[in-house]
Design goal:
With 396 residues, this protein is α+β, with helices and mostly antiparallel strands. The chain folds into 2 domains: 213 residues, Ribosomal Protein S5, domain 2 (2-Layer Sandwich); 171 residues, 2-Layer Sandwich (Alpha-Beta Plaits), CATH 3.30.70. 42% of the residues lie in helices and 21% in strands. The strands form 3 sheets. It has a 6-stranded mixed beta sheet with strand order 5-4-6-3-1-13, sandwiched between helices. Strands 10-11-9-12 form a 4-stranded antiparallel beta sheet. A hairpin with a 7-residue loop joins strand 10 and strand 11. The longest helix is centred in the last third of the chain and has 25 residues. It binds alpha-D-galactopyranose.
């Protein structure tokens, strides 16, 4: 049973009390996300359709009295990792071999410091119900919760887009992942019962309602680890850049199918396939948003399968286990209450999401679990996620 927001807050506060015999002055929360469709489009200035999920990272924090020589001192304990980190933003920036979670924490505070936002010395406890390494943006949830905490403690106003972009910069510079802005925007600006139709060029979005009475989003973890920071993600970005150079467009958002057929197919089949994924995926985002608004689940599901195929064949970021899960989804099919499925996030492992009939959730979960176990020996536990509110301050 996943911890509710109240439960997470009380775990964080209890843990803070145990460590420091004090009551936290600040409590903040930021969610993970799933992306319904529009994968690997964000860094191509395209569109995506993510939603924040009801899985949060919560931080309980207060002033840190152990300041050395007036230098900002921070100390954070991660309940999930059972480890702590302490640092100052004045020291040399964190190195990339530091335990990943602490690089995110340190990175965000350092980026804010660079933007002229001085966070007072803090100590805190981090708890989370966002599974880590599963492609559900546990890193964005951590970054955004730290940024929210820093801005609250320093009483600094900031827009959602600023917060997301600072966090994105921290991920680039201190975690070594050249990510787009989708995860961070979604974690900052998610809206309950809605997904976001996000324009990654203008960094603006529209909200699209998701009728949770009828439809549910199921997450099924392949239990294989993706390594976004590793070479493939950065390689895809470079390939897209190269395709733009050949096409002489600023970004693949500006390319048409006709253009890539004419100018890329004969020159470089790999770049052609990458560009074709991005161009067709952008179109699928708009169509899916329309179908979801019209409660046309069958059509939305069909586009999810098409997205998966494109990510698998043209973009080559899927893997055997994700494909197996999508095949299981197809075997359950519309008659079993499942409209469509696809990998979500960067790929190379992590989770798939399926659009399902809410009242059939239990039987669908059981089918996924038993079929995946039979095929791979792995015991996955599918779970429903609800479109949730973005980051917020619980206490200040
Ligand atoms: C990761 C990145 C995002 C996005 C997705 C793929 O989640 O953090 O910016 O590029 O991969 O859509």
């Amino acid at each position: 049973m996943v911890a509710s927001m109240n439960k997470l807050v009380s775990i964080a506060c209890d843990c803070f009390w145990e460590r420091y015999q004090d009551r936290p002055e600040f409590v903040v929360a930021a969610p993970g996300r799933v992306n319904l469709i529009g994968e690997h489009t964000d860094y191509n200035n395209g569109w995506a359709l993510p939603m924040a999920i009801d899985r949060y990272t919560v931080i309980a924090a207060g002033a840190n009295p152990s300041v050395v020589d007036g230098v900002s001192e921070f100390e954070f304990f991660s309940e999930q990792m059972q480890a702590s980190t302490s640092f100052t933003t004045q020291h040399p920036p964190p190195n990339l071999t530091a335990a990943a979670w602490s690089a995110y924490v340190q990175g965000v505070l350092t980026v804010l410091d660079g933007a002229g936002i001085t966070t007072p010395p803090l100590r805190g406890v981090i708890v989370s119900s966002v599974p880590s390494g599963a492609g559900l943006s546990s890193s964005a949830a951590l970054e955004v919760s730290i940024a929210k905490l820093a801005l609250t403690a320093s009483k600094t106003p900031a827009t959602d887009v600023q917060i997301a972009q600072w966090c994105q910069t921290a991920e680039h510079q201190y975690a070594g992942v050249p990510c787009g802005v989708m995860d961070q925007i979604c974690s900052v600006s998610g809206v309950a019962d809605h997904c976001l139709l996000l324009d990654c060029k203008t960094v603006t979005w529209q909200t699209i309602p998701i009728d949770s009475e009828q439809v549910a989003i199921l997450v099924v973890d392949s239990l294989t680890k993706h390594s976004l920071a590793a070479t493939e993600y950065a390689l895809r970005r470079r390939e897209c850049q190269r395709a733009c150079e050949v096409l002489q467009v600023e970004s693949l958002r500006d390319a048409t199918l006709e253009q890539i057929e004419k100018n890329l197919r004969t020159i470089n089949l790999r770049l052609f396939a990458r560009a074709r994924h991005v161009v067709t995926e952008n179109a699928r985002v708009h169509e899916t948003a329309r179908h979801l608004s019209e409660k046309n689940w069958g059509e939305a599901g069909r586009l999810m399968y098409a997205s998966h195929q494109s990510l698998c064949n043209d973009y080559e970021v899927s893997c055997r286990e994700l494909d197996q899960l999508v095949e299981i989804a197809q075997s359950i099919g519309v008659s079993g209450g499942l409209w469509g499925a696809r990998m979500t996030g960067g790929g190379f492992g992590g989770c798939i999401i399926a659009l399902i009939d809410a009242i059939r959730a239990k039987e669908i979960c059981e089918q996924f679990a038993s079929k995946y176990k039979n095929q791979t020996g792995r015991q996955t536990e599918p779970f429903i996620v609800r479109p949730a509110q973005g980051a917020f301050v619980v206490r200040s």
